[in-house]
Amino acid sequence: MDFAIALTNVSKSYRKWGRRSQFATLKSALLKRDVKLAPEASVEAVRNVSFAVDRGEAFGIIGRNGSGKSTLLKIITGILKPTSGTVAVNGRIAALIELGAGFHPEITGRENIVINGIMLGLTRREIDQRFDSIVEFSGIGEFIDQPVKTYSSGMYVRLGFAVAVHVDPDVLLIDEVLSVGDEEFSAKCIAKIQEMKYRGVTLVFVTHQLDQVRTLCDRALWLDHGEVEAIGDPVRVVDHYLQEVSGTSVAAVAPPAGPTAEAAVATHKDEEERFGSGEVVLSRVAITDDKGRELVALGPGTPVTIDMDVAVRVPQDDFVFGVGIYHADGTCVYGTNTDLEGLTPLRLESNGRVRFVMPSLDLVAGTYRIDAAVHTRNGRAFDYRRGVLRFVVGARVHDIGVYRPKHQWKVEGGITFKQIDLTERNVPAEIAEAMRAAEPRKKVKSKE
Asked: Of 44, 48, 89, 46, whose CA–CA distance to 69 is shortest?
């Protein structure tokens, strides 16, 4: 299997020492005639964790403080050995686990770059070739020949991150150290992480900045008291985590009587994923034409509307409605929400309908899906319906991509074409006949 990291039933225990396992003085130890110390108990920081990270995948780990996230990263890097279970890593690892880890405080930044580069597997020549890029990225050039002990926490992060991303790692592990940097450098780091992701570098990072998990990660792991609470789609995992932290869940909201009661079910269609607190639900989502008729198939350029019927169980002051259109292969065609487009929420008091109107849906022929959601401005989902609708766009022209802009071909000079009937080319006869039959028939004047 083509994995970068694989953990199987990994656990890590620490011995817990209490007052009874310590001696007050050397004399008391000698009088007891037994200088062996025995722990009173053990604490499991990580318990029976199993997962695999594919090559090139961005994998986020979230959870409360003390849940075992940093311990897990240290086990992956080899800083800690698991008490039980196995860890397999394929490729060169670069890690930012702790602030200043791997730096010697008494020597200069220049010397630390060389030492860290060698520790990460580079030759001296490779370090010399990348040295200027490392210093430029870190932005601490004027302090590069000063002892590291004189650096601020932000300078530690700048230098550590610069070294880690310039050793061309196969796997990059990042703990919460990026939160120490300033806003400008954090944005620079995120851009670099995205670039590395596109180049196929495997990324694993621990963070409390949940928006980064949503936007950067392909999957996320929620660790709670050392155990895997959830793993999978980052939006869904982060949402479940936020619900747990805020003390709300789908089960905590009593379903209303009537036909909208089904909307509280987590998943009720074959291919739909659905999750959220249930305080507000999208009881119906439909694609309709300009006459309100529901559609499952349409032609390119068709005017359509996405209707969302809203059932309010708990009134809200913080709410956002969003839609997303995806190709069948998972490519995002378009996505937006009311917050992005400047609609500030005031009050969601009672049931209603939200309509996303598109005068022309210019898509290439193919199969597509619709995602619809209502959530808070910080992303906590009331009702998130992924793949709530599927629809097909049919067209005679089999062009490439997902978007088909309105256009025409014009030629000048000695260039000529013969216009042909598209139903006669690359279209099975029975389909061409059906398309002709569906065309409006021209009225023929009868001869008197």
From this structure: 46
Instruction: Give which of 310, 305, 307 is closest to 283, Cα–Cα.
Output: 310
User: For residue 321, what are its two tokens?
Assistant: 């409605």
Which tokens go with 16?
Answer: 């817990």
Dihedral sign for Cα 412, 416, 421, 424, please: negative
Residues composing the chain: 448
Q: In 3-state terms, the chain is what percent helix, strand and coil (to 5)?
A: 30, 30, 40
- Biggest CA-to-CA distance, the chain: 131
Can you tell me the distance from the alpha carbon of 392 to that of 38, in angstroms, rounded to the nearest whole number? 69
316-344 mean pLDDT: 90
Secondary structure of residue 420 in the 3-state scheme: coil
The answer to whether the CB of 332 falls within 8 A of the CB of 319 is: no
Q: Is residue 329's pLDDT more than 80?
A: no
Distance CA 435, CA 396 (A): 9
Rounded Cα distance between 149 and 146, Å, is 8
Angle at 283 between CA 229 and CA 325, to 5 degrees: 75
Q: Residues 226-238: pLDDT tens digits? A: 899 989 888 888 8
Higher pLDDT, 355 or 188: 355
Q: What is the pLDDT of residues 143-170, one digit of tens each?
A: 888 888 888 877 888 888 888 888 888 8
Question: Do 152 and 182 touch, CB atoms closer than 8 A?
Answer: no
Question: Is-above-0.70 flag for pTM?
Answer: no
Report how far apart the first and last C-alpha atoms of the chain are (Å, whole number).
79
Can you list the pairs that 329-332 forms with residues at least 24 positions away whose Cβ atoms lie under 8 Å? Answer: 331/402
Token duo for residue 147: 């002892």
Residues whose CB falls within 8 Å of the CB of residue 250, separated by 6 or more in sequence, listed in order: 264, 266, 275, 276, 277, 278
Pair 83, 97: CB distance under 8 Å: no
Binned at pLDDT 50, 70 and 90, residue 352 comes out as very high
b/e 399-415 (16+ beta carbons within 10 angstroms → b): eeebebeeeeeeeeeee
Q: Which run of H or of E encompasses 113?
A: helix 109-119
Q: Is 399 helix (H, G, I), strand (E, B) or coil?
A: coil
Between CA 437 and CA 65 the distance in angstroms is 66
Tens digit of pLDDT for each residue in 14-38?
Answer: 876 555 555 455 555 566 555 555 5
More confident residue, 433 or 274: 274
pLDDT of residue 96: 74
